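Amino Acid Chain and Its Fold in Token Form
===========================================
Purpose: to set a sequence beside its fold so the mapping can be learned.
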Amino acid sequence: MRYKISKDIIIRSENASKPETQSSAYLNTLISRLGSVHSTFDFGCGKLRYQRVIARTTDLLALVDSEVQLSRTQMIRGRMTTIRDHVRKANDVGAYTVGQFASLERKFDRGFCINVLSVIPSARVRLGIVQLMRAKLKPGALCLFVVLYRNSDFTRMQKQANCKPYGNGFLMDSLRGFSFYGLIPPKDLAKLVERAGFSVESIVLDEGTAYLWARTPACATSVPSFSVRESGDNFEIDVA
């Protein structure tokens, strides 16, 4: 997604996306040990960093990201293509914008939100996205939230002339435009998911990364309505 935070600053979250070759061995092992379910979503799928390992644990997989991320030509597993074209012929994998995801009638058995929340500069948008994920999960379903809460590289990066503090992180101005890098303490992450209607099942901390499993209420609850607005330079989500 992209976020316009001032007249001259548009944050391009796609700049923070990493390829499958830079996936976490810890997270790959965690996901591969999960039991199989029928349907799963990967919210903020990026460059499909964890798509293959998640796909082995589910019959149906929904990849969710911005229109920019799904339609731009980029290097995916060794060739230049788009995410849409990469999964176009797969019967068990679909690619959806956030707006399309919000409109789906299907409810999912499991969700993933991996290294997404910490690159969103707006606390309001973070909450709206977590609320949307809760609304798209079945009663009693689990969602894994993964965020950075400590990173030694950030200390070094923040000292560079092209970086400046912003919110719970910092902005970096580069040839690819502005990027936002944030840190979310585990306690703040737990408060966020609870505010969105989840209950926290567990939190594991490993090398500066928090892995939080959250569960939706066991009984069906009323579903809010979502207004998603995405343009080439801004993303907004409102919950009614």
